[in-house]
Write the C-alpha cells for this entry.
Amino acid sequence: MYGIKVWSSAKENDWYLLRDMNDGVVHVWDKKEEVERVQKNLSCKKSVITKIMSSVIIDRALNKRKEEENLKYFLK
C-alpha cells in the first residue's frame, strides 16, 4: 500500500500523511501508478510517495473503502 507524505513548510520534519479532511483517515492506494497520478495534482511545498507499513493505518483505510462500497450498493 502506498501513501503520500506532504510537507507544509521547508522544515524537514514538518510532514504529514495525506488524509481525508472529514474523518482523518489516511489516503492509501494499492498501485504506485494511482498514487503518482494523485501526487502530480497536489499543490504543496514538497511531497513524496511512501509505503504504508502501519497495520492500523491500512485497516482504517480498508474499512472506509468497504463502508463506501456497501453504501454505493445500497444506494443503487
Observations:
- The beta strands are 2-7, 15-17, 46-51.
- The chain has one domain: 2-74.
- The first strand starts at residue 2 and ends at 7.
- Residues 2-74 form one domain.
